[in-house]
């Protein structure tokens, strides 16, 4: 067997087995022996539900609980490849060499049931790293170590799991804190590791560098000499370098930093042809400061006292068959009770990024840098700002009243941008797979679920809408190729989702220039959707590709509703550009569509798929089943602050049906009875199944044996997050938290990498739908061109605090009773209108103004025109409502 039996058994039963020691909430098992056997589930107990709402503390994984081995937090800069930070502080994986492999570790793992293609194996795109998590992938040797001298003795201790009695990892993406504990030593050591991450600043967040900052405190009573040594093996051109090449380490002395530049070259002749290899490039290991010891070649024989001394050599050269490792070190004398900090950085430069038949090549960072040394120079010169702003964002994000675990899970999936799922060409074009190396073309029907990027780095999404979806990918009839130039046809859900994203990107702009510039093509994209309604009833019914990789016939609730939402967004944009005629066309479509969807596609409990009148159920579809995306259009509407596009009562009924039939506190019995799906949730774990058959129909999906039927029996986190965000918006707070917590617990570090939500390959883009649940938990709505912002917290309403990001700035919103405060931390913020959830308002006062604000009150909200207010970083806006 390819996977060890003990490991496999441990994985499938882990939630149950580890619940006591890990204090993970175990949410029970399915109820048997009733008319909905394997469909209905009993609710978790009151204590477990109460725990979901608790603020709690940062999730901290410990060596003593065996929780470090699978951790791989991306710490390499967005769109710069993948470098993982391990649970013990070592860097691993190193997928920075443009290999474009499928999965972080291409492999096939034997499984106990058929998976999709009928074979009993799980590939990377099937979830291999879910049932057999990757660890310890180290194509190059890298690490740090500590030498301590005190009381007449010298101790050398590597910063790795084997060398310390206890190590803790605080999972606060984008900056992790690791603590090394040994009561026998007179020091406390803390590592802070990150790559600069600053919302709204995609360039400084896209640096190919990892920063490791070590803090050492003398906890003893006598001085301590502490030396922190870092080393890095030269693996430039890791795959293509051979006998004709040699690697070179050169000492670099720059202002306020020193380091080792790791390069590769041909032994004789010109380097020009070799320099075009996909993995060609260089790396740099650096220590910031003026008292740095540098060795171009670490002495052989492992770590010893000699390793911590400075050599006189300025360069070292080795053949590619020999190991060449450079090192840097900083020595400190620390008095009792004092703390020192040493900052290190590792950069890389692998410029030759290519994809077949795609309009773009090279890496974006090559526009600013010529090699890895130039990257370090930039980081050093801007270190105070880069680290301060990155830390400011981390502190701003986690300084909230929402539960810690919730803030972690809803945000950490944006780390997908810092993996080889996502790339940025030299031209500035954003390009991405669905998951690492799987399914190309920045697929519209997958990426349209991902809410995080449009909110944190909106410029990337605006450019993608304009350059790709409304440019490279748009056909004359308005259809958008769902994989850009890698495809020849549109996908209907991707088309609708892209129109909705265009509306989001407009809202996340400072003015209307994006909308005005692209309106003609936006209108064509919306008309394409309207034209897919063949019988004119407002319900799309043209057979077309969708995200479940099939062409479905008939009128399908989740697609119909999504198209209604998209056309509604188009009508709102038409109103803004004063295109009254098209606004009317859109409103006619949405009104008909909503009326007919609610009357024809609602079966009294949930929304369904009405078969094509001629084909019936002879083709694949969801038909009378309970499908996870059935009211997705309304979910999307909440993400962009639109009114209802589907009746509230019927929508709530549908969501309750999903929780009743599709959510499983233990998926084990269900997936055992319904094999064929990929293992994204295992026995003992909770999750929401994609499609269930509450009416017990014999062939609920029409066909008997299509390979896509396996999808219906899976738990895919992107869909789960979408439903959770919708439940949160509709007031189903308990259900939303339960579903989000189910995902969070499935990705506990004891079982697998918490930072790698898997679908079709690792770091799957759809998982970034998780940010949408944060949006609806805050009740955040924003329209930059109109200067409009609103909040309506879904929980902790009397004392609420959470971050916000707008077109030009970000900060914190606080609500205490009738006191509302916007404190801007970064950038600028222009406002004209604010809206808060309040009733019975008698008076509204803006701090600093003598006259009370005019206001209107409707549907539980108070709307406050504040005139034109422009805040700068450090400033606040305070409003009192009584």
UniProtKB/TrEMBL annotation:
InterPro entries: 6-hairpin_glycosidase_sf, 6hp_glycosidase-like_sf, GH116_catalytic, GH116_N, Non-lysos_glucosylceramidase, TAT_signal. Pfam families: DUF608, Glyco_hydr_116N. Residues 72-384 form the Glycosyl-hydrolase family 116 N-terminal domain. It comes from Chitinophaga hostae. Residues 493-770 form the Glycosyl-hydrolase family 116 catalytic region domain. The lineage of its organism: Bacteria, Pseudomonadati, Bacteroidota, Chitinophagia, Chitinophagales. This is Beta-Glucocerebrosidase 2 N terminal.
